[in-house]
Amino acid sequence: MGGRRLTLKLTVSLSLITCFLLSSSYGQNCAKHSFPNNRVFKTCSDLPVLNSFLHFNYDTSSSELEIAYRHSGIGSSRWVAWAINPTSTGMVGSQALVAYQQTNGTMRVYTSPITQYQTQLQEGELSFNVSDLSARYENDEIIIFATLGLSNNGTMLNQVWQEGGLNGNIPQMHVTSGANVQSMGTLNLVSGEAGTSNGGGSKLKKRNVSECL
Questions:
Q1: Domain named DOMON: which ranges (predicted)?
Q2: Which structural domain range is residue 76 located in?
Q3: Number of domains in the chain
Q4: Span 99-150, pLDDT tens digits
Q5: φ, ψ (nearest 5 deg) of residue 116
Q6: What pTM was computed for the model?
Q7: What backbone torsions phi and psi does residue 180 show, to the nearest 5 degrees?
Q8: Cβ neighbours of residue 171 under 8 Å, at least 6 residues apart?
Q9: How confident is the model at residue 6 (pLDDT cuts 50, 70, 90)?
């Protein structure tokens, strides 16, 4: 009997530790974030790597996607980007929104079509319309705001997000290992589910956490 009780206690303890680790990993729930000026986004997703979150409103009648991409825990000498890839699941072909704080303290935010791996994120027009583009840096977090016209891109998108260093005001190549090569997946604009490149999804992970309760 004593052995069974010890085994049961160990099992319960391990379960509690696992639940604690899971809840800590997903402690930054995007749904709890408040934007200034009472700005509201109906749907959000905790992206699985790079301390990133996507908030959005999607209008099915006009196919307009209003987004706020948040990248937390980032220094002022770093760039961030969020992109849609209309043709593939990787970086090449991505239509990116890029932002960083310049050496004079002002924010630069612009569009950049990614045509090759060795890119310095040159500015250029995207394959879809972009309006209301802006960015802010505060409390070690960069937020990119934009409205995208996606009339020909459907409701299931390939998304990519990324970050890297700066040389002065020039973006440098990002790290090519770890989380920086895992930051891609799918986004369902109707259900709000964000899938990962390995087939998982943010909703599934949140549901796993709730099973601990």
A1: 50-164
A2: 29-210
A3: 1
A4: 999 999 999 999 999 988 777 899 999 999 999 999 999 999 999 999 999 9
A5: -155, 165
A6: 0.79
A7: -70, -15
A8: 79, 98, 100, 120, 121, 164, 165
A9: very low
**HEC string of the chain?**
CHHHHHHHHHHHHHHHHHHHHHHHHCCCCHHHCCCHHHCCCCEEEECCCCCEEEEEEEECCCCEEEEEEEEECCCCCEEEEEEECCCCCCCCCCEEEEEEECCCCCEEEEEEECCCCCCCCCCCCCCCEEEEEEEEEECCEEEEEEEEECCCCCCEEEEEEEEEEEECCEECCCCCCHHHHCCEEEEECCCCCEEECCCCEHHHHHHHHHCCC
Decide if 11 is inside a domain: no
**Residue 91 region by backbone torsions, left for phi larger than 0, else alpha for psi between -120 and 50, else beta:** alpha
Q: Which residue has the tokens 């087939």?
A: 199
Per-residue pLDDT, averaged over 31-55, amounts to 93
| Domain assignment of residue 144, yes or no | yes
**Letter for the amino acid at 49?**
V
Task: Supply 32's token pair.
Answer: 């709890």
What are the tokens at 139? 């409390």
CB 66, CB 57: distance < 8 Å: yes
Q: Is residue 6 part of a domain?
A: no
Judged by phi (left if over 0) then psi (alpha if -120 to 50, else beta), residue 190 lies in alpha
